[in-house]
Amino acid sequence: MQENAKKKDRSCWPGLDEEKIKVAYKFNDGYIDFLTQVKTEREVTEQICRLAGDKGFKAIEHIDSIKAGDKILITSKGKVAALAVIGSQPLEEGFNLVVSHIDSPRLDLKARPAYEADGMALLKTHYYGGIKKYQWPAMPLALHGVVVKKDGRVIKVVIGESADDPVFTISDLLPHLAKDQMEKKMSEAINAESLNALVGSRPQSDCDNDPIKTHIMKLLQEQYDIEEDDLTSAELQLVPAYSAREVGLDRSMVGAYGQDDRVCAYSSLMAVLEVEQPIRTALCLFVDKEEIGSCGNTGLQSLLIENIVAEIMHKAGNDNYYSLRQALALSSALSADVNAAVDPNYPEVFEKMNCSFLAHGVVITKYTGSRGKSSSNDANPEFVARIRRLFDEAGVVWQVGELGKVDIGGGGTVAQYIAHYGMEVVDCGVALLGMHSPFEVASKLDVYMAYLGYKAFMQKF
Ligand code: MN
Ligand code: MN
User: Fold this and answer.
1) How many A from CA of 398 to the centre of ligand 1?
2) DSSP E strands: which ranges in 47-175?
3) Contacts of 120 (CB under 8 A, 6+ apart)
4) Distance in Å, CA 301 to ligand 2 centroid
């Protein structure tokens, strides 16, 4: 406890010389580009495949056998990726696993989104994940995703990211007419059914029935080969249309949409790309659907991890069911997800002895949960002690982090689903300000410390 209390006072800054700070800033240049370029789980998965391909990772479909040192890429449904570097130890003795999630809160289009009202065409949305609805009107939005035609063709859509692209937006009520709205509770001020995005206002000539919507559909048909019915088999997401940016005159922070949890995805991705010839197999996993409860066949409540490990063991010539169970049970994992940094604008919700601070290093969160640790994986202290030692020996600055004061709210991560297999797991990630907002803030040094921590864990734990 005393050591932890001391750790709380340890900012990353004094321990780093000018040269090391430069290296950490440089690492974040790549991170900022990544956040600007990829804003959906599908786009992150594609980027992981590209970068892993460049570093010699081979798709598992193209591999017949596996030996120590091999680098393997596994993907599922275009929304999940796994990178493995095979160790010299037999697989059934366990893996070192780092899991992050690559979905982020956003506004999804409904299956029948388009309608016309009051001289405008709009798109209906259904929000995804825990958003504060008032944060989404009155800003530029980009449309990302895929539309799948009846013949199976997949049409990719990214509108609103180039400087000469149009954007979309959700109008907010002017203050002059918002007397009633302003008196409502914040959770009720913006109704979910009023999160409709403006998509056009020009009518199709010679058209009497919904001429503006008809014109928009004609443009979609001409420019993307998308018909209105095709939108029923689509995943289209509205996300903030702006780039990730450096924050602060000292450029010490990163501001962007989607840092929960792409900050851990990027830092663990950069780490696994550098892992060479580990003793225990390193497995870096990027999953979907965490923000809505890890459900579905791309979320961690499915048999995803088990199927991936079974596939690797199958390629290694081991189809023994008991070996698979052993491999899972003897593995160690970092649940790489973000925590809340103490926010000077809202100090009342934080207990400063145990909450995490910006620029104080990667955060180890022994337990999450709410109302008395409910739904938490409470990491075993024997395991946490080994992680402490690993990080201290590798020069990784870390801090403890509990999500706010007890009984003020709470939250969970995928750690509980990983623990399901019997493996050891603890939450370990970056502290953010404004988590789940359209512009979350992280410290560049914390991003870099997460990378160092994940690398030490996958290379030599
Ligand atoms: Mn998260
Ligand atoms: Mn989240």
Assistant:
1) 18
2) 58-59, 71-76, 80-85, 95-101, 106-117, 120-128, 141-148, 154-159
3) 198, 200, 201, 212
4) 16
Q: Residue 291 CA: which ligand is closest?
A: 2
Please tell me the distance between residue 435's alpha carbon and the centre of ligand 1 in angstroms. Answer: 9
Q: φ, ψ for residue 282 (rounded to 5)?
A: -95, 130
Domain 2-104+257-460: give its CATH superfamily.
Zn peptidases (3.40.630.10)
Residue range 106-240, CATH number: 2.30.250.10
Q: Which ligand is located closest to the Cα atom of residue 292?
A: 2
Cα 157 to ligand 1 centre (Å): 25
Give the pLDDT band (50/70/90) at residue 404: very high
- What spacing in Å lies between the alpha carbon of 260 and ligand 1's midpoint? 5
Q: Report how far ligand 2's centroid is from the alpha carbon of 260 (Å).
A: 5
**How high does pLDDT run on average in the chain?**
96
CB distance 146 to 101 below 8 Å:
no
Q: How confident is the model at residue 3 (pLDDT cuts 50, 70, 90)?
A: very low
- State in Å: Cα 88 to ligand 2 middle: 35
Give the integer Cα–Cα distance in Å for 122 and 109. 11
Give the whole-angstrom CA distance, residue 271 versus residue 40.
Answer: 21
Residue 338 Cα, ligand 2 centroid: separation in angstroms?
8
- DSSP assignment of 88-100 equals SS-GGG-EEEEEE
Q: What is the pTM of this model?
A: 0.96
Q: Which ligand is nearest to the CA of 436?
A: 2
The full set of domain ranges for the chain reads 2-104+257-460, 106-240
Residues recorded for the chain: 461
Cβ neighbours, 10 Å, residue 119:
10
